Amino acid sequence: MGNRFENKVAVVTGGASGLGEATARLLVAEGGKVVIADYGVERGEAVAASLGDAARFAPCDVTVEDQVAAAIDLAVDTWGRLDGAFANAGIVGVAGPISETPMDDFDRTLAVLVRGVFVTVKHAARQMQTLGNGGAIVMTSSVAGVQGGLGPHAYTVAKTAVIGLARSAAAELAAHGIRVNAVAPGSIPTAMTAHVTTGDPDNLEKVTEHIARTSPLGRAGHANDIAEAVLYFMSDGGSYVTGQTIVVDAGATSGAKMSPAWSGTRMVVAR
């Protein structure tokens, strides 16, 4: 157990599984307390119970503003402070050709991935401003938000919007000592990734093998890799960083796996 989040309090949406669960567990391991906000009641209650007195569960559909506000308020009502908020709840949403996309499905996707993030930032900022002790808000974007072709259209729109929101909210909230940043994960072996890749959300072994084969670093990422990035933003280590997006993808979107045509040392002369 460390102390990078000692005596601090955070709310994690989508905290009952995947990246959210890993982050909640890491924050507690580093001395903090968390409210796990998730629509999966049974799973959320189990995760909170496993963390003991350092965790509470709040049933939360992030498309319902009152439920998000209640989860944020629960943290303050329980522990008297709010130091961090991780706007992480998400879905893949509608996929398929843009010419065939039902707009109701598009709207539902953005309701979770953009509206849900927005209201989390809204109510975290409300409490942090009232408390007057600053704070750190982190959002989950995606490599699909920084490079085309890595996610369905609606998902890509949403994850790109999250990066813009991190910048605009950071510009406003800096005056209150509140930092706002985003994490853009690459493919991480979670139930959601397994479902997209294999059609089976429980087939983590197969999706892990697939990611490892295609990773520039030769291994699959872990949910804890993302949790560590979130903790960096929320901890004193990231205290001078705001309005930024960290891409955690083994360098895939930066071209780390160079094309063989360009990997040799040579001079290329234009004629």
Automatic annotation (TrEMBL):
It comes from freshwater metagenome. Keywords: Lipid metabolism, NAD, Oxidoreductase. PANTHER family: 3-OXOACYL-(ACYL-CARRIER-PROTEIN) REDUCTASE (AFU_ORTHOLOGUE AFUA_6G11210), NAD(P)-BINDING ROSSMANN-FOLD SUPERFAMILY PROTEIN. GO terms for biological process: lipid metabolic process. Belongs to the short-chain dehydrogenases/reductases (SDR) family. Residues 8-186 form the Ketoreductase domain. One of its GO terms (molecular function) is oxidoreductase activity. This is Unannotated protein. The keyword DNA-binding does not apply. Transmembrane segments: none annotated. It holds the Pfam family adh_short_C2.
